[in-house]
Amino acid sequence: MIRAYKFLMRPTVRQGQALGEMLRDHCSLYNAALQERRDAYRHPSKTSVTYGMQSAQLKDIRGFDPERQGRWSFSSQQATLRRLDKAFAAFFRRVKAGQKAGYPRFRGMGRFDTVDFPKDGDGCRWDSTEHDPVTRVRFQGVGHVRVHQHRPVKGRVRTVSVTREGKRWYVIVTAEQAEVEPLPATGSVVGIDMGIANFLADSGGEFVPNPRHGRKAAAKLEAAQQALSRCKRGSKRRRKAVETVARLHRKVRRQRLDHAHKTALDLVREHDFIAHEDLTIRNMSKTPAPKPDLDKPGSFLPNGAARKAGLNRSIADAGWGVFLAILNAKAESAGREVMAVDPRNTSRRCPECGHTAKGNRPAQEKFHCQECGHQAHADTVGALNVLRAGLVRREAQPA
């Protein structure tokens, strides 16, 4: 099993400058490789440039520009070229599927924040020992950088990445663990129903409130973005305003991640089996299609776009996808079982008699069965049905 660890680095002023230069030079390499692919395709022969061809040119590039390209790790430069190759592979996959293509773009320094080292010991070295209280990571061309290691790294270190977030530098370490350390069995099973009014409801009748971090920070974000719009492009004041907006967004993202980690950890510690809805969040947050007015060409009928936009913001603010990904990762490391089930009619089916009808849910939070008269909170009913569907699916799986 592969686990990732993210730690704050504390570089000196000179090391911070060297890390910035490393990002700059890798960004230049990425953009140059993208330009080569574009020029080759625009040529009458429509030549295709592959990762192997560009990787073979690295030796000559490093020899031609030893100050900017020759000082960095060869493997990290290969990883940057491989990153571009993955971008093109994703582009062609979306074209083939008929989706919005999204051709790979040139990256400015503000949009290129990560350098990957595919192997520990090749251009980088994770230096962490039990007897040394100070942890360091060594990067070629930068030196030994201090790391604030707040928890131990278990397993063999495989890859190391350095990333910049605002004015802070982080190192991301992936380690391979030979065996999973399961938590003691509790004998408890649970189903969860994701929502907006409540972040989730479980089959036991408990609720986790929705913190709505994005909504709470909306006023500050609006003011910061308005201040940004009034700044002159290229000015020092605008750079400060951009950093203010980015800092607010980073705070909301950290708050959302913290809430997701804590909620998922509570579920994993208390239950052996967790069932949840298999949500297609991308489809749930789509904007409604426009409705042309046939009587007035060029005009459109109301389609509820404004109301749907508010719902989409609430869905994005809840962060269901992030939470479910964290839940699956924590359950895997703890030896728990997580199962996704079909969400259709889970909030309309009576858990007592099985009657399914739209009228069983007369309000957002109310469930009242038209057949047997059973009443309960609609989210609790949904969680109960999710749990039952998950248990049925688990029993149906081959041993």
User: What distance lies between the first and last C-alpha atoms, to the nearest angstrom?
Assistant: 22 Å
Q: What is the helix/strand order?
A: EHHHHEEEEEEEEEHHHEHEEHHEEEH
Query: Class by helix and strand content?
Result: alpha+beta
Mean of residue pLDDT values? 92
Strand arrangement, major sheet: 2-6-7-1-5-4-3
Instruction: Quickly count the helices.
Output: 11
Structurally, how many domains make up the residues? 2
Shape: globular
Percentage of residues in DSSP E strands: 15-25%
* Helical content class: 40-55%
- Spans of at least 5 consecutive residues whose pLDDT stays below 50 are none
Features of the shown structure:
16 strands, 7-stranded antiparallel sheet, 399 residues, 5-stranded mixed sheet, 11 helices, 2 domains, alpha+beta
Task: Walk me through what this model shows.
With 399 residues, this protein is α+β, with helices and mostly antiparallel strands. It folds into 2 domains: 175 residues, no CATH class; 208 residues, no CATH class. The chain is built from 11 helices and 16 strands. α1 packs across α4, α6 packs antiparallel against α7 and α7 packs across α10. The longest helix has 35 residues. It starts with a strand and ends with a helix. The model has no long low-confidence stretch (mean pLDDT 92).
